[in-house]
Write a structure and sequence with these properties.
Blueprint: E1 38-42, E2 45-57, E3 65-80, E4 83-92, H1 96-108
Antiparallel strand pairs: 1-2, 2-3, 3-4
């Protein structure tokens, strides 16, 4: 799966992350997760996994750009009446399996 480089995307075109409730459907399984996010299981929960390449300045005022692979999970947490809310978790410098394991452990203690 190809990632996306957001460094050249104008900020007005980026989607804000929201926490609205929704009902998953076959046509739109998760409106909060980016298009192309892959379905995965996180413990007993359904989730979507996504990764993209991001560019950052090393420090304020620096001209050194650091490129980093960001991995994200959008975990569907049931809130009743068939509706869910996403718990969005992102990280760099961890593998997909590590991120899923970390989030699953945190959710199992709820």
């Amino acid at each position: 799966m190809a990632g996306r480089d957001v460094s050249s995307t104008p900020s007005s075109a980026r989607r804000p992350i929201c926490c609205s409730a929704y009902r998953p459907t076959a046509a739109v399984p998760d409106p909060e997760a980016p298009k192309g996010a892959e379905p995965v299981r996180v413990g007993r929960y359904h989730a979507r996994f996504y990764h993209f390449l991001a560019s950052f300045l090393r420090a304020p005022g620096s001209h050194i750009v650091v490129r980093e692979l960001i991995r994200e999970l959008y975990v569907e947490l049931p809130i009743g009446r068939g509706r869910v809310r996403d718990l969005a978790v992102g990280a760099a410098r961890v593998s997909r399996a590590q991120l899923i394991r970390i989030v699953a452990r945190g959710l199992s203690s709820r």
